[in-house]
Amino acid sequence: MSARPIVSLQQVSKRFRNVQALRNVSLEIPSGVICALLGANGAGKSTTIRCLLGLERPDSGICSILGLESQKYSREIRQKIGYVAEKPALYDWMTVEETGWFAAGFYPPGYQAEFTRHVRGFGLNPHQRVSELSKGSRAKVALSLALSHNPRLLILDEPTSGLDPLVRREFLSSMVDVAGQGRTVLLCSHQVHEVERIADLVAILLQGELVCFERLEDLKQQVREFVFTLPMPTAAYPELPGTVLSSTAAGCEHSVMLRNLEEFRLSAWQAAGIPFQVRHPGLEEILLSLLRERRERGETGFVSQFEADVGADSGGEVEQIV
Description:
The chain is of the alpha/beta class. It has 2 domains: about 5-215, P-loop containing nucleotide triphosphate hydrolases (Rossmann fold); about 220-320, no CATH class. It is built from 11 helices and 15 strands. It has helices spanning about 45-50, 75-80, 95-105, 110-120, 135-145, 165-180, 190-195, 215-220, 265-270, 285-295, 305-310, and strands at about 5-15, 20-30, 35-40, 60-65, 70, 80-85, 155, 185-190, 200-205, 210-215, 225-230, 245-250, 255-260, 275-280, 315-320. A 6-stranded mixed beta sheet has the order 6-7-8-3-9-10, with helices on both faces. Strands 12-13-11-14-15 form a 5-stranded antiparallel beta sheet. A 4-stranded antiparallel beta sheet has the order 2-1-4-5, covered by helices on one side. A hairpin with a 2-residue loop joins strand 4 and strand 5 (about 70). Helix 3 runs antiparallel to helix 4 (about 110-120) and helix 10 (about 285-295) packs antiparallel against helix 11. The longest helix is centred in the middle third of the chain and has 16 residues, at about 165-180. The chain is elongated, with a radius of gyration of 22 Å. The chain starts with 6 loop residues before the first strand and ends with a strand.
């Protein structure tokens, strides 16, 4: 693993008129990992990517890729990395093979041969016109173009949006192979349950703020959902044994998302005779709990749509019932 981060944002802020798209975002992504950038529409994901590519100038802070500052070396950066947009710009009148030939003119020798190898690996017909391709096949052409100059970093902005589940899974599985070759993948998506299968790091943006950036396994290991039932809605309960991320109540039943659950303090609940269970929530549930907490604070602009996108029930595992 390189000591220098592949991707770096340092106190990056960006505002569009009355919308604060990014607010003091800082993160560093090392080599050889898949980092999932998650958030609702309008959370700041695409703005982050555009700032990194040098397509947007942040109001403050510094973005860099491969040690190159994005605003100063935007052209060099885009030649060194691979980028797949949500809606890839391809020439419909070209064949798949001609698309690779055209792109090869912008890269060093060997690009065409690598493109052909990737196209065959994806099972694409090199003689088929782009206009005849399904959306999934177009995404594979775009990925082949992005990979054929062997970039150290691959940036994907909602690349599986609108694809059927099987094609999405195949597409994302190919990212594991990319990371296995020592490359870095920055994947922007709202398909949380699918990204969860492949991500090493997770970065969560909520209304332009980075509220979480860490290893996915660490996050899932440290967060628990604590569900308990009180004898009456107004009854008091003992001190919660951990750091509260969010809490909801429905009558006598309370659900609390906790971090750093202190197991030794659960005995106080047992002594009080309060029935409870502790569950391992999935990444979707953790993210939705953060969203709902924002809604409880009156920040409702994006929560409902994101809940509809990811679904409200990912079926976490029950760890303990008392």
